[in-house]
Amino acid sequence: MEIIVNDSPVRVFKGAQVRHALLKYFSMNHIDHTLTEDMEVCDQYGHLIDLDAPLAEGQHITYHFDDEPSNPE
């Protein structure tokens, strides 16, 4: 299934969790996968979601690191 991570499509297996999509995204973009413990992940509505949360086809998620502002204005 396809998930959108920070505006980029990522293909993951059916039944994948947020952490799986992030690991695939990080791998595709050469980002250190150990950083997943220092971030916050939000759904398309801006609600915080857990790394173990299940994903659905077409779902949009975004991440930012704890020391970055989540909504810069």
Structural overview:
16% of the residues are buried. The N and C termini lie far apart (33 Å). A five-stranded mixed beta sheet has the order 2-1-5-3-4, covered by helices on one side. Helices cover 15% and strands 29% of the residues. With 73 residues, it is of the alpha+beta class. The longest helix is centred in the N-terminal third of the chain and has 11 residues, at 18-28.
Largest sheet: 5 strands, mixed
> Which descriptor suits the 3D outline?
globular
Mean pLDDT figure: 88
User: Low-confidence segments, ≥5 residues, pLDDT <50?
Assistant: none
Distance between the termini: 33 Å
Helix percentage range = 10-25%
Q: Strands across the major sheet, in which order?
A: 2-1-5-3-4
Sketch the topology as an H/E string, one letter per element: EEHEEE
User: Structural class, from secondary structure content?
Assistant: alpha+beta
Q: Count of helical segments?
A: 1
How many DSSP E strands?
5
State which percent range the strand residues make up: 25-35%
Taking all Cα atoms into account, the compactness measure Rg is 11 Å
